[in-house]
């Protein structure tokens, strides 16, 4: 298979992940010790992708300082910015101006918020063998009512795109990784807001072109919410999904350079400990993401949570299923639970938030 080109959709604002995304675009959030996209880029390269065009919009200027021209990753990277957000289809069409691929060549399109273990090479081969207009990765989920579902016929041809419905006809959903034939991208209207899910794909089906479904049941996760973001980082650290970009061995926790984890602390469950972060004696941290320079003081319990850069959780605090923004300080004796989010720079006084009734 020849060297592949890919378009990476990273323009979204990541509103479901606020406040983490107020200062950092979602694809750059630290995930198992590296920016989220590092995992996607490394996997794409392992399947023969050599050139990737970033379709950027929100905080577009932050991507190139992190990844540069891609040479350190064995890739060639380019950056295309939408002046105003153009939707998924418009973003793909805008980024395609930087493609070198010919009209009949395959172009991989990746969403910048998906962790997937599927075989990209096999998806591309299926696309080429069937001479499809576009081939969609489909994954099977237990509850498809939360997603649009994608029925296929016996030959794997996609027959419809159904919006979220209480009674889905299939448990297969759009998994957000596409192989387009280049000429099909060029048919998308230029400089217009276009949705591939609502306009491009249904239009192709209607006109009789082959939209192929590539279905499998490998690891798949949309990291759009804090709980899913924490799960993705945790799964990578524990080795539930392999990533060539993981900066250390799999295990109960991953500690980056300059971090200090006390031998008297309990850190487990796939926790990622950022550079220069400190976990003091007597603290317990389970399945969480501790960003660079944050501090977890003695006697604190942090579970299934994210602590932003430079955040401090003071002694005797419980943080469970919560997000603490960059530079926030949670005073002693607080209890943060049930999806609560503390905005960057906020300082919570001692015992300001409690769930239990004890003194």
Overview of the structural elements:
The chain is of the alpha/beta class and 359 residues long. It has helices at residues 36-46, 63-67, 87-95, 120-130, 182-185, 196-206, 226-238, and strands at 4-9, 30-31, 34-35, 49-56, 76-81, 106-111, 114-116, 134-140, 172-181, 211-216, 220-222, 253-255, 260-261, 266-268, 271-273, 278-279, 284-286, 289-290, 295-296, 301-303, 306-307, 312-313, 318-320, 323-324, 329-330, 335-336, 341-342, 347-348. Strand 4 (49-56), helix 2 (63-67) and strand 5 form a beta-alpha-beta unit. Helix 3 packs across helix 6 (196-206). The radius of gyration is 22 Å and the shape is elongated. The mean pLDDT is 91.
Concise structural overview:
The protein has helices spanning 36-46, 63-67, 87-95, 120-130, 182-185, 196-206, 226-238; strands at residues 4-9, 30-31, 34-35, 49-56, 76-81, 106-111, 114-116, 134-140, 172-181, 211-216, 220-222, 253-255, 260-261, 266-268, 271-273, 278-279, 284-286, 289-290, 295-296, 301-303, 306-307, 312-313, 318-320, 323-324, 329-330, 335-336, 341-342, 347-348.
Biggest sheet: strand arrangement: 5-4-1-6-9-8-10
Low-confidence stretches: none
How much is the average pLDDT?
A: 91
Tell the overall outline.
Answer: elongated
**Computed CA radius of gyration, to the nearest angstrom:** 22 Å
Give the termini separation.
66 Å
The number of helical elements comes to 7
Q: How many strand segments?
A: 28
The fraction of residues assigned to DSSP E strands is 25-35%
Task: Tell me roughly what share of residues is in helical segments.
Answer: 10-25%
Structural class: alpha/beta
Biggest sheet character: 7 strands, mixed
